[in-house]
Structure formats: C-alpha cells, structure tokens
Amino acid sequence: MPKFAIETPPVVALPIAGSDALYPVRRVYCIGRNYAAHAIEMGHDPDREAPFFFQKNPNNLDPSGRFPYPPNSDDVHYEVEMAVMLKSGGTNIALDGALGHVFGYALALDMTRRDLQALQKKAGRPWEIGKAFERSAPVGPVHQVSNIGHLDAGAIALKVNGELKQQGDLNQMIWKVPEMIAYLSEYFELAAGDVILSGTPAGVGPIARGDVMDVAIDGLGQMTVETV
To answer: Residue 39's CB: how many other CB atoms inside 10 A?
Structure first.
C-alpha cells in the first residue's frame, strides 16, 4: 500500500437505482448551449457550431436533495440536464460505438452563479467561478442502461415551487450523446467514472433560498431539490 503525505480525499460516489453498489466519479464534462432555444435565450446563434465544454469538479455532484445558495452571488440560475455516466472510455472513440461506453443516466442540475459567469465572459476568462462551486450539481440516482436502455428522446422539465419553468425533449439536443462522447475523446482520454452533463433546454432563471426545484426526465423519474 502506498504511503500518502496527507489524508487521502474520499472517492466521490453516487447511488445507483436498485443497487447497493455506488458509481465512482472521475471527471465531469458539461456541454454548453446544446439546445437551440437555450442558445437563442443566451444571445447566440443556434446553428450547429462546433460543441464546447467546460468542467465541474467530481465533488460538485450532490445527491442530497438540498442546494445551499452559494456566497458572493445574487443571481443563481437553475439548468435541468441529463447526466451521462461512462463505464469505459478511450481516445478517438468511433461514433457508432460510443453508446457502448455508457453505464447509465441520471437527473441533474447545472446550477450557475450567472452574475459571476457574466463577469468572466465579459473579461474573456474561464467560467469555473460561476459553474464549479460547491454542490453546484444536484444529481439523482444513476439508472443503468441494462435496466432502462439508452435515452435519446423524452420529455425533460423543471418546476420551481410548482410552476413550470423549463420543458423540452431530449431529441432536441443539437449534439447527441454519441456525438458528445466521440468529440470529447478526440481531446481527452475518457475513462470509467467520467460524467457528461448534456445541456439544458430554454427557460433558465433565478432561484432564491426556500425555493423548491422539481426536475423530471422520461425514463429517469423525478427529483426534488430544496434551496437552503
């Protein structure tokens, strides 16, 4: 056994629906503006431009059902997304074999300090201060492909305090799940434990302490997250 100079960090792991095993997380990739209507509402052309990605940290994923409103921000937005969990990876993955690397899918939120993100955009700087803060990605249990199959269509929605705010369909993704995997593998060596947040439909907006977010995707059930 190796001897470490400091206490080793815990492995970030997520519950798996119907199993007592856990899914360990290695990296988290997030695609930007992957639904045309959301690209438009953010002031961009929805044409199929090359995809772009940013990252969150593994320990940003949080299955607790509680979202602590982060410090130093007055404009925090919700973004409902489907998370894709990989069981294997590699480089230069062929498009027609990409889905073979998927372990499962989960409900997720990409919470965003929009005011801080806007400042970074204006200055041409990275977005991590607005995206990769603590517990910024509430997530539900992982549903295995062996149980639910692959999800390439189906309703995706978010309500805040019972009011519908976001709705769309997974088939509206500009870049589909196999394309995201293949593209990422051209620039990174993907591996088991990698997670991809696949983008959000239109309707993103602010939340406040005390707000309750209900998210749902066909095939993945529902998840409730309380803002505290």
So the answer is: 19
